[in-house]
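Extended Data, panel c. Modelled sequence:
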Amino acid sequence: MIEAARKIILSTLISIIFCLSVFSQGRNFVIQEIAVFGNSRMKASAIKRVMRLREGQAFEQDMIQNSQKRLERLGVFKHISIEKKSGKHGVILIVTVKEKALFFINPVINIGGKTDFNFNEEEEKSFYGAEIGVNDFSGRSHHLSLEAGIGKLKKIGLRYENDYFTDLFWGLGLTNLWYKSKIYESDVEKQIVSLFMGKTIAKFEAQLWARYDRIKFEIHPSLDDVEKFYKIGIDITYNSKDWDIFPSQGFISKMGAYKALNPRGTSIYDRYMFEFSSYHNVVRKHVLALNVNAVVSSGDVPLSDRLYFGGYKTLRGVPIGTYSGNNSVVFSSEYRMPLTRFNQNQPREGMQGTSVYLFLDVGAITERVRDLRLKGFRANSGLGFFWILSPEGGLRIDLSLQPEVRVSVSSLWKF
């Protein structure tokens, strides 16, 4: 009887000790405190809310990386570091930030670069200007910027964006463009009013947008042609690239669609877009980059929204205006060989560098979808040079050998 009682007491003590040890270990994986330093405009409570962390929450190692990415997406900090230290009752997270200046000015140089799905002609025009704005003017990640430029493309634009909720953003933009169209042989003035809102979930981003386009063609002093459209669309993106500008691994997939309406609300045409790019680290930082880009249209597409080949997003050896249509498919491949060492551990600093590459483009552009056949595809090849000037931009020089020898330069720099 006494022996049985001893066993019961011993087993009870062992259980209590085990529970206490588990509880003590569990306390080491609880966030005891979040200390924020270096902030002047954005409140510490707002920074914690963006990080989605709170005292007393169970701690996991990937929280640090995820929180840093959320803070970086705000675009208001020059420097962010999150350190973990052991405390008496759990983990202490020390968040150190350095905010960007309230006012900023960025010189902007665009040389023949295309930045959208539609291969619009005005994106091929070079312009030189400046972006002036206010960073986080309310302390809640509200941004306001004015961009003006001169050159073959004259541009003035105003943009407001609210990123306070990090994964939920919205904004609006007003843009006016003036340029000389070689294709239409006329002066063109284009006004764009756009609204957008989106949500980011992990590596996914979904964005709804609506815009009003007014395009005026000055065909003759006494005869002007004006086109007006309302467009409503959606874009969905999945991005797992390690770097934004010159990735070495991962992929990005983007799907989009929009409907164009006339001022009376009648549907004019629909457009569907798909783009997929993958990046493979082959050997010694050499990267194989593969891309497919497809645009399909249905309905009566106006002249101003037709697709044109030419430029690094399509066929690099083709002068713009040589081929046009309403539907296109382009396959591109690049084998990239870095000339300077990239820093894998610090992506933003690591993006600065130079690289040379070999490329092969294959594509077709047609009036009708059913005419996108293999026999209609054209190919070109060549070599290129890429200089990554900053995380915001770089210079690309392509020397095409087929179908003709042609040098093209494209870039978007923001210093």
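The longest strand covers residues 204-220. This feature is highlighted in the accompanying rendering.
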